[in-house]
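User: I'm putting together notes for a lab meeting next week and I want to include a structural view of one of the chains we've been expressing. I don't have a solved structure, so I'd like a prediction I can at least talk through. The sequence is below, exactly as it appears in our construct file.
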Amino acid sequence: MTNPDLQKWATWREIHAQPEIWASWAQSLDVAGLREWVAAQNVTEVWFCGAGTSAYIGEIICAGLEGHDGPRLRAVATTDLVSRPKAYLNGKRPLVVSFGRSGNSTESIGALDALDALAPQAPRLNITCNKDGALATRMSKGAQKVVLLPDACHDEGFAMTSSFSTMLLTALAVFDHKTDPVKAMTELSATLNASLDAAKSAIPDVPARAVFVGAGAMTYAAREAALKVMELSAGRIPALWDSTLGFRHGPKSFVDDNTLITVFLSSDADTARYDNDLAAELRAQFPAAKVITVGAGGDIALPMHAGDTWGAVLSVVVSQLAGVIWCAALGLNVDDPFIGQGTLSRVVAGVQLYPVKA
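Assistant: Thanks for the context. Below is the predicted structure for the 358-residue chain, given as structure tokens.
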């Protein structure tokens, strides 16, 4: 179910721009130089920091690269860091990787303040889409590197789409040493280009509620997918996320006959057995509900040649498409579903920051 009028929305166009952005960025990103800079910092921990969607990038990376060789990887949301900076930063010298579409959210600035006060020598790698934001322009006392994404990634719409996917792929290019980033991004671009029409046609009518589940990195892709649906529906479609095995432990109580359940299939055959078992169970227990599998061999077929951590962007794109289609069907402004409400804004503001004492 697609509407030709969707093309008028910037968010819809930004979703469709992702394959070209990824393919082009793969050729211009200085992966070797960034990896060399990271190695020179000689740290024992790398923290991936951001708020909301930008925080979920770190969760996907840490889950997907679990057990990798090198420094310990941690996902530390700025929403946690800013409220309790001393709990995290006292005596620490991590490499802090900050993600931010605008680079100007209150928590992004608060995290920089906390670092200046408590860990001024901690090296910083800022990955951002806005050349004028604090993440791009504010200087650190310690080592600092800024990766400025292409202008096309600075989404105009409320929902983060190409900004999310390209920041995630950029960080993976730097920290996943076992994968050829140029090959991975090029393959992801080609897969999405080939799959967009089929994915759009497989999206059902507006559900009363939605669930997204997956394993490993796909757990946190599910988290981002649920957020996209809630954001783009202005909360009219409650959305839940969980891990494939965790979903049975209580969260399954959320499901009723009007629920759409999306299972993100792992590209690992052993893990995918659990995903498919859950999908079959839900179909049997809730025959009136709608269950869709996404991934290699799924109802929405998306081969993930570079594995789940890289392929997470493909699964999330399905939720981006669904969110826009349902938003328009609900009669909302796709580029600002909360227009006139004053409750949520594209760049989070209104948070009072308090001084951090060294």
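A couple of points you could mention at the meeting. The two ends are 56 Å apart (CA to CA). Residues 203 and 335 are 20 Å apart (CA to CA).

User: Perfect, that's what I needed.
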